[in-house]
Amino acid sequence: MKSWPAAFVPQVPGRSPDVRVRDTVTGELLPAAVGESASVYVCGITPYDATHLGHAATYVTFDLLVRALRDSGVAVRYIQNITDIDDPLLDRAERDGIGWEELATREIDLFREDMTALAVLPPDEYLGAVESIPTFIEPIEKLLASGDAYLVPAPDASHAGAHDVYFDVSRDPKFGSVSRLDEAGMLDLFAERGGDPDRPGKRNRLDALMWRAHREGEPSWDGGQLGPGRPGWHIECACIACNRLGVPIDVQGGGTDLIFPHHEMSAAHARAFSGKPTFARAYVHQGMVGLDGEKMSKSKGNLVFVSELRRRGVDPMAIRLALLARHHAEDWFWEDRDLASAQERLATWRAAVSGNGGPPAEETVAEIRAALADDLDSPQALTAVDRWAKESLTHGGDDLGAPGVLARALDALLGIRL
Ligand code: 5CA
Ligand code: ZN
Question: Which residues contact 411 (CB under 8 A, 6 or more apart)?
Answer without folding.
Answer: 9, 10, 417, 418
